[in-house]
Amino acid sequence: MSQNTPPPTLLSQRSAVILLLGVLTAVAAVVLTVLAGGALAAGLLAGGAAFAAGVLFFNAVIS
Q: Are 57 and 17 within 8 A, CB to CB?
């Protein structure tokens, strides 16, 4: 009899949560920047920086 083993996951649950929080941080930064009167390009740059900072922050906080 062969046992059906599930395939390995692509990301761990911790990594998925950290990346999700990073994306949510980036989206919030883009929306707030554009609503404050900034251009969309400036909002996207702010979102990219917020994503990087958010991932670093949540990686350090979530253990």
A: no
